[in-house]
UniProtKB/TrEMBL annotation:
It comes from the Bacteria. It comes from Streptomyces lavenduligriseus. Transmembrane segments: none annotated. This is Dihydrodipicolinate synthase family protein. The keyword tRNA-binding does not apply.
Length: 265
């Protein structure tokens, strides 16, 4: 479940700002035939902004409608203890792995980053996928620290969203003992022979993502560039653009995002 196309899901919301189970079901009906695993509540799912209730509802609905696909629980919380709190809930809700960043803040040291992932593995109750990049946490593991983290027995994969295809290729060459997953659409074809894609594009174009990964396209660069432009995948509000496209298709009942919805804890 740590290879192939892993769909980083948007979070379907109702008119009242609650997670729409029917929207999740319709979305997964379109994604399942082409995906190898499902990943709710990460950046594409607005994971930083979800209340605990929304986070639990989205994970619950994803597991319920997964149709046999593995579900990896995105956990975007600022501290080790907060991630562990959500990890324990994820175990109870049926997730098969957790995906987490480093602890938030510019002053986090490399030793603190390593201890964070060590504790997640020892106390979280789930295999760990490292979400590598600075956008969420404001810091990142350096290359040597990341290799040490990959050697931890509970770390099964790295989602590399560093923004550097060179860094991804270097990870692949290092054979660190964990799967290497490319996390940014515009760099997929430059990232080398990765084990999988963790992409928002799989919400709107799951068949295209599967064909890209399998190498079945004769014009992959042009097709990928067109999709990135069409859904604004290099924009800060890519998740909003994807929701709007899915709403227009009738997959989602609204294109509301967390910041535009009226939500309660």
């Amino acid at each position: 479940m740590y290879q192939g196309v892993i769909a980083a899901l948007v979070t379907p919301l109702s008119e009242t700002g609650e997670v729409s189970e029917s929207g999740v079901a319709r979305l997964l009906d379109t994604v399942r035939p082409h995906a190898d695993a499902l990943l709710p509540n990460l950046s594409t799912g607005e994971g930083r902004r979800l209340s605990d209730r929304q986070w639990e509802d989205m994970l619950t609905a994803t597991v319920k409608h997964a149709g046999g696909l593995p579900v990896l629980a995105g956990i975007l919380r600022p501290t080790t203890e907060r991630v562990l709190e959500r990890a324990r809930v994820a175990v109870d809700l049926g997730a098969q792995a957790l995906v987490a960043t480093t602890p938030y803040g510019p002053g986090i040291t490399q030793d603190e980053i390593r201890r964070h992932f060590t504790e997640l593995g020892e106390r979280g109750g789930l295999p760990v996928v490292v979400y590598h990049g600075t956008e969420v946490a404001g810091n990142a593991a350096d290359f040597d620290t990341l290799l040490r983290i990959c050697a931890l027995p509970s770390v099964v994969a790295v989602k590399d969203s560093s923004g550097s295809a060179d860094f991804t290729r270097r990870l692949v060459r290092a054979r660190p003992g964990a799967r290497i997953l490319a996390g940014l659409e515009h760099l997929l074809l430059e990232s080398g022979p990765v084990d999988g894609y963790v992409v928002a594009l799989a919400n709107a174009e799951p068949a295209l993502c599967a064909d890209l990964f399998a190498g079945r396209l004769t014009d992959p660069a042009a097709r990928l560039a067109d999709a990135c432009a069409r859904y604004g995948l290099e924009r800060d509000d890519w998740y909003r653009r994807i929701k709007t496209a899915l709403h227009h298709r009738g997959v989602l009942e609204t294109d509301r995002t967390v910041e535009t919805a009226e939500v309660g804890e």
